[in-house]
Each structure stands twice: as C-alpha cells, then as structure tokens.
Design a protein that fits this description.
By secondary structure, the chain is α+β, with helices and mostly antiparallel strands. The protein contains seven helices and 26 strands. Helix content is 30%, strand content 37%. A five-stranded antiparallel β-sheet has the order 2-1-6-10-9, with no helix packed on it. It has a five-stranded mixed β-sheet with strand order 3-14-13-7-8. It has a five-stranded mixed barrel with strand order 20-21-22-24-23. Strand 9 and strand 10 form a beta hairpin. Helix 6 packs antiparallel against helix 7. The chain starts with a strand and ends with a strand.
Length: 461
C-alpha cells in the first residue's frame, strides 16, 4: 500500500524563503497503475490548472524523500520540503509576476512533458515511482500565459537548456539539437493561439484629423477657422478622427515570438534534412549489403587479407623479440639455483591485486618429479619481481616455468583457492609456448590457404 499522495496546491509566498499560505485543490488526483508495475503510479494533469483565479502546481505528500529523475536516468535531485510532509519543485530563481507578487516557478504549471519522481524508503532505495504527464489545455489561452511560457520552460525546452521537464515520446536527436514531441506540441499550440489572436488583435485608438460630413464633425480649432473663412454653407469640415493602431507592445511581442520560433524551427528543419540524408545513405549502404548477402558466395579481397596477416605477423615478431629480452632481464633477478623447483605449465587468465601486490589468475598444470603425476588447478601466482613485461592480460599466454614457492590459501567468496608466492625461478626455465595473438594469425593463415583453393570465394552459411 502506498504511503504518499499527489495533489495540486496553490502557494502564496511571503518572501523568497517563506510561504504565506497553501491552498489545496478540491479536485483530487487519482493514479493509474499498469498491470505488472505495482509500484509505478501515473498521473495526468493539464497546463494552467486554475481554481478561483489561482494557479495550481503538483505536490507530493509523503514522510519519505522524493527525488527527481535526471537526464542520466538516476534519481539524485530531491524535491523541496515545503512544510512537514509536503514536497514541491521549487524554482531556482525568485520571480515577480505581472501583479507584483513574488513566486518560485514550477514547470508543472505551464510546460507540456513528463516529470518522473522516485520515493526513497529511509534514503536507501527507491520504493515507489511516480510519473506525472502534463498535457495541453489551449482553451484557456491568454497572452500573459503565452508570454511567460516563452520566457520560461518553453524557451528552455526549445533551446535545449536545463529543464525539470522531460519527454521520451518521439524524441529525435539531430547532432547537438533535440526536438521532442512535447516541444513540437507546444509550438503547434502557440501557432493555433497566434492565429486566434491575429483574427482579433489588440489595438489602441490614436487621435488624428481628417475631413468629415458636417453632421459627423468632431470640432477642432481648424474646424472653426474653416467656418470663418467659408461661411455656414460648408458640407464637409476638418474634424477630429481616430485611427485604430495595432503597433502596440503586445502585438510586437507576439511577432518577436513568432520570428524566434521560426528561426528555431528552421534550424531544426535544416538539421533534420541533414539527418535524413545520412539515414538515406545508411539505408542505401545496408541495401547493398543485403544484396551481397543474398549471393551464395562473396568475393574475398586476397590482397587486403594478406596485408592484414602480414601486418599482424610483423607486430607479433617484434613483440616476441621484446618478450625474449624482457624474459632474460626477469630471470636475471632470481638466483636460479639452490631450491627444489617444480615444473608448471600455466595459461594466464587475468591480473588481480591482493594486499597491494599484483598477482595473476592462471590455469596451472603441475608436473611432479617423476614426470608422470600431473595436477591441474585454477590458482594465483604472485612473483616478487615485476611481471608486467612478460605477462599480459587479454593475450591468454601459455608458458612453461620451473619455480620454487610458498603456498598460501585464499578464500574467495567462500571457496578456497591456492596462492603460490614465487620465491625463485630456475635459470633458463621460462619458455613461451603460445598466445591468443599467435592462434589468430595461424587461423587467418589457414583461411587464406582455403580461400586460395576456392578461387577467393567464400560461401555464406
């Protein structure tokens, strides 16, 4: 059973860090729980939720700490603890509204998208997951809401700046630009609202002067001067008139917004065009590959294959020469005589560190003095001298070596493994056998010879 509640609240702030009152909505929010996701609760709200002239934002009521889901998919940004067990998204900046009232902005008021929250149980692990979908409500449009949208979350989303809102629906990435469904929907809603305003735009009346019929004249000084000069027989006279002027702040701002959105959309159209070209090129390339794969045989580039093999062989020969030099240096650091030495054939699996010292996990085959009894085990070898120049992780090297050792027992997750601390190495005993690098070259040589026999045709299976 969940121990939290999601509700809508309207907050009146007394100052930046102190609220004056909290009004809870009379309309409760009910979650949707999908089958199989018993700890995931989905809520739907709309933009500009109003009651009695107040705007409402979502709030989580819980004794635990709720965290916002970040762009990296992790929950690490806690909500703001407003009061007791009430948690909200608190805007980072203190803003002053049109009525001169200060507030902290919450994107759930005016931004389409999704907010995802995880509630931690005793600050240890996520217990419940909350998903809040914020949907469009364009019917309640007015200019001030649109203006605030453009300056706040809508602008942040369109220009890919940091926002508390996320959207995973129909998201496409064009180089360093992101254009999601939620931004597209906001822009479409803006254009619809703009069309509605354009049909009946705001205007102001400017005083001017003109000529009017005598019965419609609104007298001005020039009217009387004209009467004096022509007498009382005039049909038209100078008059005060009014001109409807649309060049006002609100309309200028709307045009600025329209122009800005045009530039943003144009840039994204440009990026989407480039992305389309890239995708078309990828499709063409893959179609060519599909056609080739439909053929029962494919042509092998003999020169390219031989060049690759030769390059690997050359690198391997250089590596072997260096290994022999490093081997001799390594052996010279041990006295090489005076102990009971045991023969070991080892295959190096991985490097590890025990007690601050580098060790090697190996598959080891021991051979006793009678050369008959063989013992195999997965164990750890630790050398007193540096082995990085003769043993390499990832090459799966196999070597022969005669060693004297001290035996220890390791407990790895409840399982005992032998650890051999190598105290001495028999002079001249360290011998390279093979490695994965050499086996790959050998396999490629066999493939080269087989392709040569089939006239450089490779059959697809």
């Amino acid at each position: 059973m969940k121990d939290f509640e999601v509700l809508m609240v309207s907050i009146e702030w007394e100052s930046r860090d102190k609220y004056l009152s909290i009004t809870k909505s009379v309309r409760p929010l009910k979650p949707t729980i999908k089958p199989g996701n018993i700890n995931t609760y989905e809520y739907d709200i709309v933009l500009y939720t109003q009651e009695n002239g107040k705007y409402f934002q979502f709030c989580v009521k819980t004794p635990h700490t709720p965290f916002l889901k970040g762009s990296d998919g992790k929950y690490h940004d806690p909500l703001f603890n407003l009061k007791d067990d009430l948690w909200i998204i608190k805007g980072e900046e203190w803003e002053i509204g049109q009525r001169g009232i200060g507030y902290h902005h919450c994107p759930s008021i005016n931004t389409i998208g999704k907010i995802e929250i995880g509630i931690l149980d005793n600050l240890k692990q996520i217990k419940d997951f909350i998903s809040i979908d914020i949907n469009s409500n364009i019917l309640d449009f007015d200019f001030e809401q649109l203006k605030n949208d453009f300056e706040g979350e809508l602008w942040n989303l369109i220009t890919s700046q940091k926002s508390k809102i996320t959207s995973s629906r129909l998201e496409l990435r064009y180089y360093d630009k992101i254009f999601c469904y939620s931004e597209s929907k906001s822009i479409i809603d803006f254009l619809k609202a703009y069309d509605a305003i354009e049909k009946k735009p705001k205007s102001e009346l400017l005083t001017s002067k003109g000529i009017a019929k005598i019965e419609k004249v609104k007298p001005i000084a020039e009217t009387y001067r004209k009467l004096v000069s022509i007498g009382g027989s005039a049909r038209v006279l100078p008059s005060k008139t009014f001109i409807e002027n649309y060049d006002i702040y609100e309309n200028r701002y709307l045009c600025l917004m329209l122009n800005s959105i045009y530039k943003i959309v144009s840039k994204n159209v440009h990026f989407s065009g480039r992305q389309k070209q890239k995708l078309m090129s990828d499709i063409e390339s893959r179609e060519e590959t599909i056609l080739k794969l439909k053929e029962p045989f494919i042509k092998v580039d003999a020169d390219l294959l031989l060049s690759e093999i030769s390059e690997k062989e050359s690198d391997f020969q250089i590596w072997r020469q260096n290994w022999e030099i490093n081997r001799n240096i390594f052996l010279s650091k041990y006295k090489g005589v005076g102990d009971n030495f045991y023969y070991a054939k080892i295959k190096v699996e991985s490097k590890s560190v025990f007690g601050g010292k580098i060790s090697w996990w190996v598959n080891c085959c021991w051979q006793k003095n009678d050369l008959i009894h063989i013992q195999e085990e997965f164990c750890v070898f630790e050398f007193h001298e540096d082995t990085n120049s003769i043993l390499e992780e990832g090459k799966w090297m196999e070597i022969e070596i005669y060693v004297a050792y001290e035996k220890r027992i390791l407990n790895i997750r409840g399982k005992e493994r032998n650890k051999y601390i190598i105290t001495n190495v028999k002079a001249g005993s360290l011998k390279y056998l093979t490695s994965s690098q050499e086996k790959i070259i050998h396999k490629q040589r066999l493939d080269y010879n087989n392709f040569q026999k089939t006239h450089w045709q490779r059959e697809l299976k």
